[in-house]
């Protein structure tokens, strides 16, 4: 057991990108008819409510008007569907909000609607997951975690436990296909285990970041290869919570017979880890409300510069779970 205790690793959440072409500096305007005495309106197009992480992010962002009464928040739940999010953005444009905040379910397919926002002179701040657009001026700012780094950290937990030369069969529960969280975490993990010649990913399927699908997919993994799997690598906690149930129902001991690593750091996962049923958590901070508020203020005052915002995120192993549990805020 030579877990490294690495609480509070500095992580990066990147806040980037430029100012709208033609909208820079103090002269920046939005199309809103709000006078400066009126509240500034942020329209937030959320992914859905698929996980504990997501619920915590929603709560944090909905607190913006409490943090600053000069701001109002319009909220839309996309129910994990891009088409719903696109509709929400179009409504926000029609309502002439001051800022559109988008947490995109997937990375591609946003060019048209973001151009509509730009034409309406409404700045767009991308939150959490990122977008891939041909024209970067469609995005005013991005704030979120470094998902690739999270995948690397997850792999390091496994390597710290077993060593590079171990022979391991890994089952992977992927997040929503095409999302930054899934793409980045998978890439970071796979790149890190390249140095481990006998680590094999023998199962890999999406559980769409939900408990129910995580359980269902893990059941299928166990049915076909139950006796081979040594490690479960889950792109989020909720799928791992579902998988732990599946492992127990199958008659194996999660955290002992199968070593488990996941990303997020929700309380439920910490509880399971404190009970010995999981082995490692890579933290991903969902409490993005204050950062979104700060970025929105900068954008509206025309003072946004290219920036990197560091969010404190940690890595936790089983021996730290009990001690950390009371500190968890989500
Ligand atoms: O890890 C997962 C959620 O985009 C970082 O989405 C987010 C991920 C998070 O459903 O639980």
UniProtKB/TrEMBL annotation:
Taxonomic superkingdom: Bacteria
Protein name in UniProt: ABC transporter periplasmic-binding protein YtfQ
One cellular-component annotation, GO: cell envelope
Subcellular location: Cell envelope
Family: Belongs to the bacterial solute-binding protein 2 family.
GO function term, MF aspect, one: carbohydrate binding
Residue intervals of the Periplasmic binding protein domain: 43-303
Gene name as annotated: ytfQ
